[in-house]
Amino acid sequence: MYKSFIRPILFKFDPEEVHYFTFSILKKFPFLAKIFLPKPIEDKRLEREVFGLKFKNPVGLAAGFDKDAKMFNELSDLGFGFVEIGTLTPKAQEGNPKKRLFRLKDNSAIINRMGFNNGGVDAAVERLKKNKNVLIGGNIGKNKITPNEEAVNDYIICLEKLFPVVDYFVVNVSSPNTPNLRELQDKEPLTKLLGTLQQLNLTKKNPKPILLKIAPDLSDSQLLDIIDIIKETQIAGVIATNTTLSRENLSSENKEETGGLSGKPLTKRSTEVIRFLSEKSGKAFPIIGVGGIHSAEDALEKLEAGASLVQLYTGFIYEGPELIREINKKILEKGL
């Protein structure tokens, strides 16, 4: 139904506009999902315990889709085992000028240069207070106007405010769409940032898992640095990977647009990063695998490479909610 009827209609419109239109429809008429979309698989065998949290199934929604925590309940009803909201910043910001979201249909991909557009952490916190038992990840970043030298303060603000309403945190220093943000992935500033956040976290009565989301464009030596940093700071794990700056082997008309590329062109590289981190660390920490998952087979490859959980974004847009069901069904068949 989705790929044959719904997607062709949605893809006739601007991707950012249709995203918010779809949100409004699902919000106003939630029963439509039950009529037109497949029933999610619910099975105790799909449950996973990772970072000390219990996930009802290992297929989550990646950050960027529900930036402002407006649809997490409805999205969970589609079958996701968990929903990651954000990236949130302390202050609301508009992000980069439009047009900033582009489909690459020939490559089953998307380029975005959104720039952490969001309504600010306070507004999201109020919505998250209405959570109906959805496991929530809080993806946090810095405001564009905040210099890197002061970035840690933005992350602290977001952690403090989100702490009562999310289950885990994701530190986003790997988006290519905020100027100089990726410089925070360098060993010294990243160790300081994660160490500071973890120290704050450990002062809480019930500390929550902190994860680091990394870029797929890191070299092997940089990935080895990531392993060392996680060991030193004792954060809970990694999300691999964010979008890429690479434009290799693209054929679509929008391939020259600036921003982060996601979708099928990222499938192989994100799996390589997962496998590298898992093997070189001796499976020392959990990994959430994300990037180019467009089929159940793609998801299983990431799980077999060392991921404990997976997340969808672009594959969800191209393949629809049926993809969640297909992945969970295949996991049950394989007994993973």
TrEMBL record:
CDD domains: DHOD_2_like (cd04738). It holds the Pfam family DHO_dh. Its cofactor is FMN. Binds 1 FMN per subunit. It is a peripheral membrane protein. FMN binds at A63, G64, F65, D66, K67, T87, N139, N172, K213, T241, G263, G292, Y313, T314. Keywords: Cell membrane, Flavoprotein, FMN, Membrane, Oxidoreductase, Pyrimidine biosynthesis. InterPro entries: Aldolase_TIM (IPR013785), DHO_dehydrogenase (IPR050074), Dihydroorotate_DH_1_2 (IPR012135), Dihydroorotate_DH_2 (IPR005719), Dihydroorotate_DH_cat (IPR005720), Dihydroorotate_DH_CS (IPR001295). Belongs to the dihydroorotate dehydrogenase family. Type 2 subfamily. Monomer. This is Dihydroorotate dehydrogenase (quinone).
